[in-house]
Design a protein that fits this description.
This protein is mainly alpha-helical and 102 residues long. Helix content is 65%, strand content 0%. The chain has one domain. The termini are far apart.
């Protein structure tokens, strides 16, 4: 999986563990997730990192969601995004399985 256009794909492939991949995903800007989100999801799936794919899918869904009059996400969407962020952060730190529970 070699990409001259966007090194994130190479970084994900070169990572030695899914925990390392989680750290890479957590550093991505919203702009990169908007631009390359579907490709990143596909890369995570190809690398058997389902939690990473789900995390990026949730981030992408939040970025594309309709906001209220104050620019806020619906509360359920914001809660889901935060739950995934916390789960992937804990996973990257060596705890849990990268999936929100509860």
């Amino acid at each position: 999986m070699v990409s001259t256009a966007f090194p994130i794909f190479d970084q994900l492939a070169a990572a030695t563990s899914n925990r390392e991949r989680a750290t890479i995903l957590l550093r991505l800007s919203d702009g990169l997730v908007l631009e390359y989100g579907t490709g990143i999801i596909a890369a995570c799936r190809a690398l058997k990192f389902a939690a990473g794919a789900a995390f990026i899918n949730e981030r992408l869904a939040g970025l594309l969601a309709v906001r209220d009059a104050h620019g806020l996400l619906p509360q359920w969407r914001a809660n889901a995004a935060e739950a995934w962020r916390m789960a992937i952060s804990e996973f990257a730190a060596g705890k849990g399985d990268g999936v929100p529970h509860g």
